[in-house]
Design brief:
146 residues, 9 strands, alpha+beta, three-stranded mixed β-sheet
């Protein structure tokens, strides 16, 4: 075997082994990411009015970092539920606990839409997770004035 062919063969084998090592490392890190424990905030979205939701209603619930003033809240987790739905609408927002800073404030926000129109929205703060706040709660939404 000539030296150029031997060098080429060694380069190909080395590259193949390196690629296998990378694939194994990627698979291992993907498994580690999947194995990372998730936490959750759970509860129900409800309203006081005695009316049914339209069949096409969508309920969107978000967990947001509301610590910073004059800045849009950073969304940590979000869930959209599609109709037909009726209240109370259960939700479960899974989030990565590593994204939570005990010094910050987090809140649940909810809205109900139908046909592209906002019907109900949270009008009060619903603090969760930090500072002794719950991870299970009832979230009241109020009708949007037309």
């Amino acid at each position: 075997m000539n030296s150029k062919l031997a060098c080429l063969l060694i380069a190909v084998v080395t590259a193949a082994l390196g690629a296998c090592g990378s694939a194994d490392d990627s698979a291992e890190s993907a498994t580690n990411k999947e194995a990372a424990p998730m936490a959750a905030v759970t509860g129900n979205v409800f309203y006081l009015q005695r009316i049914a939701l339209p069949d096409d209603a969508q309920v969107r619930v978000t967990l947001a970092d509301v610590s910073k003033m004059d800045v849009a809240a950073e969304v940590i987790a979000e869930q959209t539920l599609y109709g037909p739905l009726q209240v109370p609408v259960p939700f479960r927002l899974e989030y990565d606990p590593a994204r939570i800073d005990e010094r910050m404030s987090y809140s649940i926000q909810a809205r109900i839409e139908s046909g592209g129109k906002l019907l109900f929205i949270t009008t009060e703060s619903h603090p969760v997770i930090t500072r002794g706040n719950p991870i299970e709660l009832e979230v009241r939404v109020d009708p949007v004035k037309r």
